Structures are given as structure tokens and as C-alpha cells.
Amino acid sequence: MTRKSGTGTSKSWLCAMVTSALLLQMPAAVLAEETDNQETFSLDAMVITANRVPTEAAKTAANVTVVSQEQIENGPYANLGDVLRDINGVAVTTKGFAGAGQTVYLNGDDRVLVMIDGRRLSRPQGTASGGRASIELNSIVSLDNIERIEIVKGGASALYGSDAVGGVINIITRKGTEAKTTVDFSAGSWGIRNYGLSTQGSENGFSWYITANKKEQDYAEYNVLNPALTAGSSKGDNRRWPNSRYEGEGFTMRLDKTIDDNRSLTFNFEHWNDEGGRPISVLKPDGPFDQLTSLSNNWALTYDFNKQKAVPGFARIYANYANQGFYGTYKSRVQGFAYQTGWQLDDKQKLVAGVDWERGEVLENRFQDEYQEAGNYSNKSVTNTAIYLQDIFALNDKWTMTPGIRYDHHSKFGGQTTPKVNVNYSADSTTDIYFSYNRVFKAPTLDDLYYDLYYPFYGSTAKGDPNLKPEKGHVISAGVNKKLNEKTSVTANYFTSELTNAIDWDYDDFMNSQVCNIAKQKKRGFELDLKHKLSDRYYTELGYSYVNIKENRDNAGYLVDPKNSQPNGYRVKVGYTDAKWDVNVNGQSASGLDRDYFVDSNYWVWNLAANYKMTPDASVYFNVYNLGDKAYELTSSGSSNRGNYPMTSRHFVMGVKYSF
Questions:
Q1: What angle do CA 575, 581, 583 make, to 5 degrees?
Q2: Domain 8-659 CATH class label
């Protein structure tokens, strides 16, 4: 049975009217109450990631966005990809169903470093989704332990080394404070059931924050994009994804021990595990081995010192373990050590210095289909050792210059030196203008180097190349952060980047592929953000981004990348907040998509979140995803199978939280 979707235009207007009604018709008694003012406007926020030391966001000389705990809790977010997709200039691609790989793009680049509390999460073999990403966002199951997320767009190899070409995403976890336990239960469409528990406390200098959660979904539904791929359907028809069940569970723990005012110890542990069906695509919805399991166990021990000084320091040891099962077994482990210190030389100059060491190894990378084992590789590893130095120097009250340099020694590729220079000009108390130049590099993954697959049943092959060269280049950014008044802020950013020896997997025919240094890549674009408080209770955010990606394969001339999923991006958020209510709707759009690779050249998708605090300890919430029931896609499946990866249709989740 199918259900026909209506037109996109009428649904967009319907969404707008529903949202307006929710926002404007709050009870008069509630309107009279004092607002909590929960929305955070990031220009005043202190961030760590951009300069490795606490710095006001507007003065980091970088394109920085901060997502607060309140924004995450009050938004219509089921996972980390949902949170990031709501940010202007960020693209997150996925094949639609729960558990599908999610890849984040900053400045149009998937070479993005993802961290937790400054600790790298990159997997040494890369991701099953391909591309240049080193982690799939869906491996991070829960959001309950997040204090805030710092997103830095633009090259950051001078501070963080490989992977930080498009930028850095740093997830800052929550530290236990008051004695409190919170239970969270929600249910919704398609048998969705979510169970959450968090407990925190602090006593005699020791604090803890622990979370546990479980997610279940019986199946998913999508709206048909390309009727040629789904027999007996029309565009917009609603269909059930076969083989789309999902189960995920997570457990996180953060323990903190205060030694004195300047020193502390922190232990972090994260366990995430998910499993479920993997429909692959509309053309291939199920099969005997189309099941996916993904396990992550990570831990870190950090010693913080000089906490009260202008340049804090730390020493950290950590390990990440991952085990993914899909047509075989893929196990990897990362072990690392990081040390950072610094000095306040005078009232105008700070020096930051550090050492990083990391060893990544693939323990087992074995492909096996239902008929026979088809080979691959195991017991391969790479080691990287790095030192870095950064000088934050205030030339006067208006000018700040931040030069830096990092040297990485890779066990496979030898030495890589990446300098940077950032300049910030504070024109007045409300205006900051910045410029940054960063050299960047991305080392090949172990899959790039050693992948060796022969699939006898189909006669297909896929081979890595141990002689690959690292991807190298530069990123230039310039921008302005401006507070127009106490209620309105505007940010604008322009970037351009260029890479040589770009890596890709090239197919000589449909069944055989070989990795190689095939291209030069150029990217350029800009972003414009406007945040405005309409009143103490109403707020709005508007954003536009433009990204142009070109490749020069084998010196044959530059061509525009037709797989760019967001050439023009648009973000709209309108919300209402007070002591009882937080209601917001967000709209996400892209235009300029290549019709040879995507069914439609543009789309609009709207999501709704409504939260009501019944008592200081109890609240209820209601989220609707894809309000207009739009048929759209975020991932291109090539010119021959457009619409093969549709996103899920309209669905809802409602739940209750109680603290004691």
C-alpha cells in the first residue's frame, strides 16, 4: 500500500502556518512569566578548539559556531548528524535510514577531525561510506552527555595535524555538579522507543556524570523520489524500507577529581553499540547479509594543570576501539598520548606548545560474503608523532596576531610541516575582522594503502596503493563578526582552499576500482549568518552558504563536482522561549544540485520541536521530523540511479523527562 504525498509548495506553507500558530498562541499566563532566555548567541561564548586556549568566539580569527546544551535539548535532534545539519554551512550526508553512515562536510570538505574533549576519534582505516572522512557520525549513539559542541570551519592542521582540512568538531562533555538523576522516555512513529538515564553529583572534590540509553525502531518509511527504481509507484508515494529496523545503546561516564585550584584528574569512558538492518538502497533493499553492527569503546585519562592561569596545560593518554560487522569483520584500535603547556610571557603574549603521539592499527579487516571469504588485510598500523607551537600576540588594543607551526612525523610518509597565521582586528567593541592562512595535509588511511579485495562471485576487485602520497594544500579564510545591537548579530566568512594529490577511488569499469592520487581540488565559498531576538521570548536565525567544488583529474582541466550535496545552503530557525515553553521550527534547504546526479535541484525540509516544563522537575516534549513529508535526498548515487537513497518521510517522537 502506498500513500501519495502532496506538493512541496503547499506543504511548506502548511508548515509555516502550523509553526506560526504554535509560536503565537501561547497562553497569556505563560507570556507573563519571566523568560529563561535559553538561547545562546555564540559571539560571546568562550571556546577552546580554535586556539587550544579559552578565547572569546568573536576574537578567535576563525569561523566558529558553538552549539549549547540547551539548544541540543530543545531541538528536534535524534542524533549528532541532526544537530550538525541544522548549522549554517554544514552538510551531513546519509542514506536515510537509522544506522546509515553519516558524513559531515565543513567548507565542502569531508576531511574533518571529530574529537571528544580534544581527543581524536579518527579511525585508522577510514569509513565504510568511503570518501575522505575518518569517522561516521552515527557511531556516536547518544547526545545526553554533551555540554556543548564547538565547530571550527577552515584548515586546522597547524594545531591538529591530519584530517583537519575542512575543520574541527569538538564535543565537550558534561561535568557532574548537583546531585540529580534524570529519566527520559519517548516513543513515536514506526515503533520508535527511546530510554535514557543520567545521574550526576559532586562530593569532596569528586564529581561524576553517567549516562545510559537505548534506542529501538521497528522499521522506517521513505517517500519515493525516482519511480523508475520502485515498481508501481509515483513520485512522493510513501513506502516502507525493508530491512530497516534499528537498535542502539550507549553508556558514558565522566569522573572528575579536583586536586587543588590548579590541578584535576578526569576519566572518560564511552561505549556505543548499534545494530540493525541495512537496506543499502531502494534497488537493493535487503539480502542475507545486509545487517550492520557497530561497536565503539573509548577511554581517556587527563591530568589538567595550571587551570587558573591564562594558558592551562594538560597531559592525556587515551585509546579508542572499534568493531564493525558488515559483509565481514572490521576491527581497529587507536592509542595516543597528548601533552600541552604554555606560558603568559607578558600582558600581550601567550605561547602554547604541545606534543601528540598516536598509533592506529587495523586488527582485522576481513571481507566475507555468503559464499566464501574474499580476502582483505589485517595487522597493519601507522604511527604519527607531532610537536606544535603557537604564539598569541596582541600587537595593541586592536590587533592580535596568532602564528603557529606544527611538525608531524608519519611512520609511512615522513615529515610534514604545516604553518599558519591568523590576524584579528577589533575595529570597536562590537566588530571583529579576521584573516587566516593555514597549510593543511591529510595522510592516506590504511584502507587507502592496503585494501586488497577480490570478490570471486562477481569477479570484482578493489585495491589500495602503498605508494600513495599525502594530500597537501592550503586554506585561506576571511570574515567579520558584528554585533549590530544587543539583540542582533551578523557574521560573514569567505574561504578558498586548494589541494594537490587528492585521493579517490577510480573505477576502470563497474566492478573494479583502484585508489590513486587523481586530482587537484579547489573549493571556495562564503557564509552569512543573522541572529536576532525579536523580543525577550521570540528569536530567529537566518543563514546562507555557498560552496563551489572543482576537481582537476589527471591535469585534464577543472570541472565542477556534480556530487556536491549543498552548493547553496539555507537555514531558518524561529522560536519562542520562556520559563515554561520552548518551541522552535527549523528549515533546511539546498539548491543548485546537479540534475544528472540528483532527482531534484532543490528541496526544503522543516522540523518542529516543542518542549513544556510542567514542574521544575518534569517536562514533556514533542518533535516532528520532515513536517511537509518531503521526498528528498542528501547523498548522490550516481547519474544512473538518482533517488536511490531517499530520506525518511514525516514521523514524530513524543516523550517525558523527570529529574529527582
A1: 30
A2: mainly beta
